[in-house]
Amino acid sequence: MSKKNLIVGQSGGPTAVINSSLYGVVSEGLAHPDLIDHVYGMVNGIEGFLNGTILDFQEALPGEKLKGLTHTPGAYLGSCRYKLPESLEDPVYPLLFRKFEELNIGWFFYIGGNDSMDTVSKLSRYAAMTGSEIRVIGEPKTIDNDLVHTDHTPGFGSAARYVASTVREIILDACVYEKKSVTIVEIMGRHAGWLTASAALARKYPGDNPMFIYLPEVAFDQEAFLANIQAAFEKNCNVIVCVSEGIHDDKGTFICEYDNSVGTDSFGHKMLAGCGKYLENLVRSRLGVKARSVELNVSQRCSASMLSATDQQEAIAAGKFGVKAALDGVTGKMVSFVRETAADGSYHMTCGLEDVNAICNEEKPVPQEWIINNGSDVSEEFIAYALPLIQGTVEVPCGEDGLPAFVYRK
Amino acid sequence: MSKKNLIVGQSGGPTAVINSSLYGVVSEGLAHPDLIDHVYGMVNGIEGFLNGTILDFQEALPGEKLKGLTHTPGAYLGSCRYKLPESLEDPVYPLLFRKFEELNIGWFFYIGGNDSMDTVSKLSRYAAMTGSEIRVIGEPKTIDNDLVHTDHTPGFGSAARYVASTVREIILDACVYEKKSVTIVEIMGRHAGWLTASAALARKYPGDNPMFIYLPEVAFDQEAFLANIQAAFEKNCNVIVCVSEGIHDDKGTFICEYDNSVGTDSFGHKMLAGCGKYLENLVRSRLGVKARSVELNVSQRCSASMLSATDQQEAIAAGKFGVKAALDGVTGKMVSFVRETAADGSYHMTCGLEDVNAICNEEKPVPQEWIINNGSDVSEEFIAYALPLIQGTVEVPCGEDGLPAFVYRK
User: Nearest 5°: phi and psi at A30?
Assistant: First the structure.
């Protein structure tokens, strides 16, 4: 059997461990020189590949340098948001496969969320249709943790650890003054509230801040929210509330849309503020107390400061597992995580393979039964689910400039 | 000589190392049992002290627990923003000193910024006026680095390291797509731009992102800003700009005030957005490119994730130095930092003492000669000044919950 080449790409938003998944794929690929000749990377995903931008990992990150990927957030290869056409008759498909053939590609890996799994689905179906022997495998990635048919996704654990630890620090900050105050923390998640729910991990004891957590899975009632805060002042003069950016009311209107009344800037463009800023103003106006909002923003997905060692190791394992499966002939699958809880309650994770067609374009919400107190909190079941995923600290090496030393594409 | 008690308080906004200063004062106080009986803490500063809320450190944080302060951000003792009356004839002064006498206080320490040094100034002047033997010492603290007569302030180094490292991560995040984009990062600092300037430390080579840095020390010109970005696209399709929250134009109008036109929320209250959000909208409207803004917000001052070991150790040293000085009879002084650069260029810091009356209510801006490129960048002199202050990583211990384990007041 003649040797072939492997190619891997990254797609969608960055995470803290998308490059750990990449490390898993590349290092496993390089470990089979009898089967795999070159390990290539697509620069800027399938879109960049179409434009001919690829790199060879043995040149780009030779030897020990490759390992730098495991503590580098972002997307080393760059990313894209490019949806392949629905019709497999579209001329882009033969074009792509001709390019694969020119590069002698035998294995294609795509690291991403459900949109990226759509790419994996289409390429694997086109390969099957045309009798191509290219193996196409999806590697999961998303801080949103909303992929179906997997216990969780790489990227979620580190983002959850960042959220929990940052919220814990924000609580410390908010509680220094003995004056009534409300702090609204806005966390990423338009449709799924997994990451916002992780703020519950910041609590040190039941009843601790954050006193309320609101997810997009249930309708948000502004009056009930205000009443909750008013009641909470009986227990704590500093109230911290965590909200998902995607919270909406029972009519489906996003809470952030309520600041439409705020109108337009001096150029006639609508000023867009998040729901945190809106709720901050609501609290200040209606309750007459000091209010502040904090949008955690992109650091949730791009910070290496709170890397979860569990998340990092699982991302690497998923990358390696996918390569081994592809070498065994598997195609059209996404690597999944299967949780095994031992008799002593300890957490173990194994990798599995799921049909990518059943995953792409689907979303997994937080289960309704895990959302309690009229939609203002999450249950102990959520804590038990999420806690193992944020364990372990990763030591990120520092450079001479005293800052984390990441690896960069030339 | 009969033994006396020491009391220490914290005031103003939190920092990552205000509790390290506290550790320095308390540990040094406890190291002199021949002179000092109890080491007390004021809960919520001088305001809390007036209300009778104090604690005894040997009960609150016995033995090794005290050391937990050195990696706990926030303000362990709680804080206040309470300005003592200008007139030393005000009845609050005899009231305070009667309370000091009842507690047999011999040494009074206050950790804070220039407002807090005002408290130190007034108490020390009242003590001198009335012949009280209480020694009153100020311990510097502010992320703003704007105290005069000291090379820098505890709290700045860790905040600068947080800003530089977070901006480096935001750059990674912003550069994953090959599409023109502008990211505005808004950094704390209403009057002094030291912290915003620290974003320059994120660069890996000259010309790297952040491509522009705007401080409140010079007037901000919106048209020049837009022209700079337009020109920068020639070099880099992803442009990151760092701005101080307090930037203003040549008429003295804060840039964030320009969104006044945005008007009021549905309750008739003005919606307040930062200058970052305003500039994001300006860029999107005028240049027609993808724009995003990130407000670093309170994490700049309350995160332990990027503690600078240099900053932490200096804060502890300043605390200890102040106690030794007070035991030597010094009063009415603030502990200052004096930089010594060795022949080999290496950085050394020693503690000094400065008249607190010359420090309170003054502000130290970034020198004009360190601000270059028509107010859009900082010079190499700033880098040389700031770089030693962000060196060294502090390992923050984690609890069983996988999150940083801080110490808390009961």
Answer: -70, -15
